[in-house]
């Protein structure tokens, strides 16, 4: 007899394991299937967490090298890359074990193996020895995440031509690194290796970096990264990449048709991600996909099958861990008869470079396109006491509010701790707050958060410190 569950989650990443825990909390007999051998998905194993570890460690290394400028004299600073990588790996191991503990604590049955549909109520699980286990389920939630995309005809070897996965595992600092794509992931990894001593070039097809970000923030971000030593080649199309034994040559054409080659030790291709739906046997149960191979779902995350749901990177929307987590909770609550929902207007995005970049809600460009009249409030960290006191004052806070109602429609930050500061604005937007509500809330002094208050005051042209 096959084991029978009320709910089975295929995928143990941020969306999947959170969904499984919430289902179990709501009283459903739940299983979670993960093929990687460790929980946490791309984010925890080869994405958000290890990259943030390296971003932090490389920033610490850079800061220590320049402490003498601030009156702290130290000896020679040396990089021990293998030790740095061990520190990164330790963080990942501790957290993946923590997720496994959480599943156990919440009585979720954890299967290590690759899950696929045998029928709409039967899931096949094959372990790494290809041994098959069949389980039965009333409801199935697909949360299998995404995979990095390469350029046509170019394959990752994760040594010379790498995805973000390979860029987390270099055994030595590259002399020269070319990043193809000026999005979040490429810029984060580029900044890590730049701080550790690599010459980093970014080749981007568009005329700006971080597509979809507020243009003013994007422009400021690029200026700061240039100042840090990253070299940008905008409006260049990659035609081909020729790999040799120990290096690569990237052939590009610019907007005027001029050809340019780049030689480098490693090339990081960071041009996006695609839904990870291969091997699920979706065709067996006729689950509908859209033209981007994403699983089609309704507002309750239900597919065209009444007992199969999908969340996270396999469906439409931003490929963000926290978006998947919120969807995991929402679908679990819907399955249990509650009213789970996700407010897609208040999902923040963060780039964890130094300085950090964060955004939430609408950009200026989107508001213009929607013909919504708005007001802008801006405040520079150069006028923030805490930022100036610690010599970390690059960037600014920008708040967009409705011209008539003053309701906050979006916010865009570049500066110290932007990824944390954005949460205040997220809470404000969730409650439908006005910029005046933020402006009239007492903020501790001296803190970075005062820049948010001053930007809110600036919406009505009444900032105090600028």
Broad CATH class of the largest domain:
Alpha Beta
Average of the residue pLDDT scores:
97
Question: What is the name of the CATH superfamily of the largest domain?
Answer: FAD/NAD(P)-binding domain
Q: Using the alpha-carbon principal axes, give the shape.
A: globular
Give me the secondary-structure category. alpha/beta
Number of strands: 22
What is the radius of gyration? 24 Å
List unreliable stretches of 5+ residues: none
Q: What is the CATH architecture descriptor of the largest domain?
A: 3-Layer(bba) Sandwich
Overall description:
The chain starts with a strand and ends in a 7-residue tail after the last helix. With 466 residues, it is an alpha/beta fold. Helices cover 31% and strands 26% of the residues. It is globular, with a radius of gyration of 24 Å. Strand 12 and strand 13 (248-254) form a beta hairpin. Helix 1 (14-25) packs parallel to helix 8 (321-335), helix 3 (48-65) packs antiparallel against helix 4 and helix 3 (48-65) runs parallel beside helix 6 (184-195). The protein has 3 domains: 3-148 and 274-342, FAD/NAD(P)-binding domain, CATH 3.50.50; 161-271, FAD/NAD(P)-binding domain (3-Layer(bba) Sandwich); 346-459, 2-Layer Sandwich (Enolase-like, domain 1). The model has no long low-confidence stretch (mean pLDDT 97). Strands 1, 2, 3, 4, 5, 6 and 17 form a 7-stranded mixed β-sheet that branches.
